[in-house]
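In the previous chapter we treated chains in isolation. Here, by contrast, the input contains two separate entities that must be folded as one system, with a combined length of 232 residues.
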Amino acid sequence: AQTVTQSQPEMSVQEAETVTLSCTYDTSESDYYLFWYKQPPSRQMILVIRQEAYKQQNATENRFSVNFQKAAKSFSLKISDSQLGDAAMYFCAYFSYSGGGADGLTFGKGTHLIIQP
Amino acid sequence: DTAVSQTPKYLVTQMGNDKSIKCEQNLGHDTMYWYKQDSKKFLKIMFSYNNKELIINETVPNRFSPKSPDKAHLNLHINSLELGDSAVYFCASSPGPYRTNYGYTFGSGTRLTVV
């Protein structure tokens, strides 16, 4: 079974600074998809960014970008110009079509991001 | 119009009771899921239904029974509730098990507290 590891239970950053959240995963597949989800105190799970493993170009969404290193099985999230509204739990997730896609998304244990004003 | 709606948002109940959580999606998706988020925020899949048919049934106590009357609805019934069932339960949907490459759309979660 695939596993997703987020080694930082908690990170803290000053407002307007840049922070990078780490994620590694274990898979034998060559074609898969990776995601970062944000869960603010409201509890809602919000998709932040998505990366297709067959694409070498790193995904970017406004202030959010990823550093996807396929050989190292690493998928980190960089948040630039951190804002107070970025404070949340961030979950890394993995999906592949092995097993017909029946396994759904596999999530890491999350990183709690604190923004210091 | 909420894409994936769960009711209730909060549920406080006594041990031994039976309760249900309802989920509805208006996205036209074929696949729906139930995830459990424990007190440490870990998300674990419980069930998945594709077009009313069960496709994932992880190792959960058989006190948990999902029911899908149609592909837009997936309800979770829990019998004989125990303290350890206290958690947040998320419903999610995707276009299909072969089209989860775009991720899920989540409901807002149901916080279940068993006292």
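The longest strand of chain A covers residues 88-96. Chain A has a mean pLDDT of 93. Compare these points with the single-chain example from earlier in the chapter.
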